# Entry
Amino acid sequence: MLKYTLCLIRQGSKILLLNREHPAWMGCWNGIGGKIEKEEQPRSSMLREIQEETQIESPELSFKGLITWTTVEGAGFGGLYLYAAEIPDEYEYVTPIKTEEGILDWKEISWIMHPDNQGVASNVPSCLEKVLYESSCYNHHSIFSDKIMVTQISTKIDPRIEADEAMRTDYLNQYLQKYIEAGFAIK
Ligand SMILES: Nc1nc2c([nH]c(=O)n2[C@H]2C[C@H](O)[C@@H](COP(=O)(O)OP(=O)(O)OP(=O)(O)O)O2)c(=O)[nH]1
# Structure
């Protein structure tokens, strides 16, 4: 159910974002990440995606929780592991960079968070403050309708969920129960 990773890499007042060429994400700035491969753990998968997409080697990752999503139309459930990383000011990483996946560029936090900004994956600005300035982990649950996010509910979660599979399964089962009861099909 949690098939993806996403990392918000910060340097000073900017976040490194990727504008993917993938049709579903075209024109939309999002964090670095991708699909977790079979037999991979979330953290190692995250490090692999960062290396592949940015060439940045082994940044120090902080686990920040999950982003999960459902749709009001009942099209199922999805989720990702959310990470943050910080790159020191002296590390020179010049953008824009055109990669196989799309364009990488540093974007100002104030630009990302601006209420009129429609160019960023919709559930990133709404969780960014917690990711950057809080040490607790959250599940940011986003509810979409016709590809538009209608609401996001952020609840604290135990950080051990990242590595403890039994705890994660328990959490997701409890958490999903209310969606199952409401008639959502869970993939
Ligand atoms: N901000 C945000 N990111 C999302 C959501 N859903 C979702 O899959 N992502 C992220 C997870 C991954 O980092 C990325 C998936 O990108 P993708 O569609 O190119 O995945 P992919 O299977 O091709 O990945 P890859 O391993 O080939 O790189 O988007 C969402 O609702 N919000």
